[in-house]
């Protein structure tokens, strides 16, 4: 079989050929679904995407439970969506209910359909989190050689450079990546982190800024700079707290008809920080969004 994309609408008439015969060559993922079901549509989209990513490595067979009732009875399908994994004309696994993409990938991994570079990414992430950053960098370098088009590997490397404060290397590598990679969730996260790190490199130290504020709590530039530096050090909640204080000070200025600090820069920076955190720190982002909304209401 060639490296084609195998996505089929399966009926009772073609089930034997498409599902059973082909399952002796490659795994078949059969989705028992209803065209009216939103969860079924979601799973269908996920496995269609994966069938394109892993072209030629598995068959995605979609079976409408209403139109192909006998197939549903044959496989004892009681609820939809239902995923049935078929190998060598035998059922290897059945799963009911909505799946995430990560869970769908685990199902495929169970039938030996996976991306080697992504496995190496997971190993590298574990090494880095456990303090063996050198081994993580070696693994990611090998992963890039394994799959040069996998921009997520490069973004992982950017994140490690950020974590070990190799900012020049992080900026240089991120700058070489295509625009689409920078617009992904991970791309936005590392781009945001680098933006704050680059800004923080031009500011006084955190201890110096705190000292300035202890002498004059109304020094808005110092508070703004402190929020930037705290963000660069991953102290996100403290940074948001400083920006909210600064935003409140702006509101008090408005009541006195003074000009707000840098035309609402605190609010804009808070929004930027919240958007940066949404992919990787959703709970912190949610709380910050609520706090900001409360102040704006």
Short structural description:
Pfam families: Thioredoxin (PF00085), TPR_19 (PF14559), TPR_20 (PF14561). The chain has 297 residues and is an alpha/beta fold.
Distance between the termini: 61 Å
Tell me which CATH architecture of the largest domain applies here. 3-Layer(aba) Sandwich
Count of alpha/pi helices:
15
What's the SSE pattern? EHEHEHEEHHHHHHHHHHHH
Strand order of the largest sheet: 1-3-2-4-5
What's the total count of β strands? Answer: 5
CATH superfamily of the largest domain: Glutaredoxin
Oligomer: single chain
Number of domains: 3
Major sheet summary line: 5 strands, mixed
Shape: elongated
**CATH class of the largest domain, please?**
Alpha Beta
Sheet-strand content, in percent, reads 5-15%
Helical content stands at 55-70%
Overview of the molecule:
The structure is a single chain. With 297 residues, the protein is an alpha/beta fold. The protein folds into 3 domains: 7-110, 3-Layer(aba) Sandwich (Glutaredoxin); 116-200, Serine Threonine Protein Phosphatase 5, Tetratricopeptide repeat; 206-296. The protein is 61% helix and 9% strand. The protein has 15 helices and 5 strands. Helix 8 (167-176) packs antiparallel against helix 10 (185-200), helix 13 packs antiparallel against helix 14 and helix 14 packs antiparallel against helix 15.
Features of the shown structure:
3 domains; 15 helices; Serine Threonine Protein Phosphatase 5, Tetratricopeptide repeat; 61% helix; protein-disulfide reductase activity; Glutaredoxin; elongated; 297 residues; alpha/beta; Thioredoxin_domain; Thioredoxin domain-containing protein; 5-stranded mixed β-sheet
């Amino acid at each position: 079989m060639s490296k084609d994309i195998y996505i089929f609408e399966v009926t009772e008439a073609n089930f034997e050929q498409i599902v059973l015969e082909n399952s002796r060559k490659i795994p078949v993922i059969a989705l028992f679904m209803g065209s009216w079901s939103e969860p079924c549509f979601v799973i269908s989209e996920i496995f269609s995407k994966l069938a394109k990513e892993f072209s030629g490595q598995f068959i995605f067979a979609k079976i409408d439970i209403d139109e192909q009732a006998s197939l549903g009875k044959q496989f004892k399908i009681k609820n939809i969506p239902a995923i049935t994994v078929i190998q060598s004309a035998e059922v290897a696994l059945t799963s009911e209910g909505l799946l995430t993409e990560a869970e769908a990938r685990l199902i495929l991994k169970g039938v030996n359909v996976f991306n080697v570079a992504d496995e190496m990414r997971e190993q590298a992430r574990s090494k880095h989190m456990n303090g063996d950053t050198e081994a993580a960098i070696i693994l990611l370098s090998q992963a890039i050689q394994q799959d040069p088009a996998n921009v997520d590997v490069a973004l992982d490397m950017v994140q490690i450079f950020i974590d070990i404060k190799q900012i020049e290397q992080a900026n240089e590598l991120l700058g070489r990546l295509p625009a689409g990679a920078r617009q992904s969730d991970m791309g936005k996260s590392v781009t945001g982190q680098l933006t704050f790190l680059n800004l923080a490199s031009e500011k006084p130290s955190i201890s110096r800024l705190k000292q300035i504020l202890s002498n004059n709590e109304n020094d808005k530039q110092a508070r703004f700079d402190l929020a930037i530096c705290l963000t660069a050090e991953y102290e996100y909640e403290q940074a948001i707290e400083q920006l909210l204080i600064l935003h409140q000070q702006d509101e008090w200025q408005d009541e006195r008809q003074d000009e707000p600090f840098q035309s609402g820069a605190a609010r804009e920076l808070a929004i930027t920080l919240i958007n940066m955190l949404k992919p990787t720190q959703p709970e912190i982002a949610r709380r910050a969004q609520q706090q900001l909304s409360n102040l704006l209401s």
